Every structure is written in C-alpha cells, then in structure tokens.
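Run log, item B.
One chain of 129 residues. Sequence copied directly from the ordering sheet:
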Amino acid sequence: MEFKKLPDAEFEIMKAIWQTEPPVTSAMVTECLRRTLPQKEWKPQTILTMLTRLEQKGFLRSEKRGKEREYDVLIQQEEYLQIEASSFRQRFSGGRFTGLVKALCDTDDLTAADIAELQSWLDERSRHS
C-alpha cells in the first residue's frame, strides 16, 4: 500500500499514538496531545474525525471494546518517516542523497557532535554495504 504525506494535524495524532502504549483509545490520544501540545485545544470530536480518517488511509485499525474504540497502529513511525524522507529527497534534491545532506548540513548550527554522529552513522552503513 502506498502512503501519502499526512496533513500536520493527522501527523500530530499519529505521533501521539506512536508515543502511547497500546491498546490506544481516543481519550489516551487526547491526553497525550494535551501534554505535548498544550497551546492547541484539541476537541474530542476533531480527534475522533482524524482517527477515522487515519483508519481509512490505512494507518490505523480499530475495534470497539465496551464503550471505547481501541486503535492499533498499522504503520510504524520509522516506516512512515522513511517514506517522508524519501519523498522529501525526491522533491528537493532530485533524489540525490548527497544533495539533501548538503542542503541540511550547510548551516551554522551544525555542531562537531552532529558531524561526529553523522560520520559514525556513515561508517556503520559502509560496513554493511
């Protein structure tokens, strides 16, 4: 199944779900959003609508248990972020990895620790290639 980029609000819902221990209910999502994004007032009906959309898009599956509906994740955060990164790389650097890395790293806020971490990651990748 091909996944499309989530709108920001739906992505925030998914981040809340990924941070929550399953089984996940709408009340748990609401609580997580209130903790992580206190400046935004999430209405319960809005959250339910977005949960339904995410289910229709194949990100979630739900089952009614008693009074609550429980949601299970069908796409993990890492998988979605890989899709997003690939799409971003394609749109902004013609699919070239080096072009993307260069654009991200040509800033003044890149620290020596960031460079060392990136170098360590590259070294690890090259050992497994």
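Observations after the first pass:
- The chain is about 60% helix and 10% strand.
- The first helix runs from residue 8 to 19.
Flagged for discussion on Thursday.
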